[in-house]
Amino acid sequence: MTWTDYIHADPRVAAGKPVIKGTRLTVDFVLGLLAEGWSREQLRSSYPQISDEALRAVFAYAAEALHDRIFLPVRPGVA
C-alpha cells in the first residue's frame, strides 16, 4: 500500500488540499481530529468512509511530507 492509493489532490475539491479519495475529508482535518484526541473508533463512527488503510495512508502522507525537511526549533515565549 502506498499513500497515493488513498490520497489525492484536485483543485476542484477542497481548494486543492490533499483529501482521502472519494471524500472531501482533508488530510489536515483528519490529523487535526486525531491531535485533539479522537480515537480511530470515533473517526470511523463519525466518518465510516475512512477505512483503516485510508487512515494509514494519511499517516504515510504526513510522514513523507515531513521527511528530510529542515525545521527551526520553536521555543514558547521567544519571539
Specify Rg, calculated over alpha carbons: 14 Å
- Largest pleated sheet: 2 strands, antiparallel
N to C succession of SSEs: EEHHH
Helix content: 25-40%
Total number of helical segments? 3
Structural class: mainly alpha
Major β-sheet strand ordering? 1-2
Task: Note the overall shape.
Answer: globular
Mean pLDDT: 91
What are the low-pLDDT stretches, counting only 5+ consecutive residues below 50?
none
Distance between the termini: 42 Å
Residue fraction in strands: 5-15%
- Extended strand count: 2
Structural description of this entry:
With 79 residues, the chain is mainly alpha-helical. Helices cover 39% and strands 5% of the residues. The protein is built from three helices and two strands, in the order ββααα. The chain has a two-stranded antiparallel sheet with strand order 1-2. It is globular, with a radius of gyration of 14 Å.
What layout of secondary structure does this protein have?
Layout: E1 7-8, E2 19-20, H1 27-35, H2 40-46, H3 52-66
Antiparallel strand pairs: 1-2
Features:
79 residues, mainly alpha, 3 helices, 39% helix
Brief account:
Helices cover 39% and strands 5% of the residues. It has 79 residues and is mostly helical. The radius of gyration is 14 Å and the shape is globular.
